[in-house]
Amino acid sequence: YAMLLSLIFLIVLVAAVVGFVFRHEIKTNFESNLNLALRHYNMTADRHSEAVDTIQRTLHCCGVQNYSDWERTEYFTQRGIPRSCCKSQDDCSAEDLKDPSKARLKVFVDGCFFLVTSTMESKMSVVAGISFGIACFQLIGIILACCLSQYITNNQYEMV
Fold this sequence. Notes:
By secondary structure, the chain is mostly helical. The protein has one domain (1-19, 43-155). The chain contains 7 helices and no strands. The chain has helices at 2-21, 23-39, 47-59, 74-79, 94-98, 100-106, 112-159. α1 (2-21) packs antiparallel against α7 (112-159). It starts with a helix and ends with a helix. Keywords: Glycoprotein, Membrane, Signal, Transmembrane, Transmembrane helix. May be involved in cell proliferation and cell motility.
């Protein structure tokens, strides 16, 4: 049991170190994937388009760096900026979304990349604290399992 807990502890420790060391690559990869999702965005409700819509609605953002990122997409030439960027769904017409100057007043202007990464970084202290607490319990479990094993081994020799 102690060996199993030790193995799990080492896996979690390695994952934390790798995540910390490669955090910049994770950001770069997220940005490129978000750009790719914008380029392939469509209304057929695939999971990438739904993810983009959910991020934009939840974080009140639009595009990767800002709302003008949509102007370089095929979707914009056909339908304009997506409705998930609108500040108010009632005050956002299709004509407004096709005109970037009018859309600026109707949609969120901040990009999603900065908001997502800043939200993740702000929550990292909570994640680190919980992970540290779990690691402490694992270490206590490892120590107690070793003590129990030692106690069982010592008592077997005394019983004879």
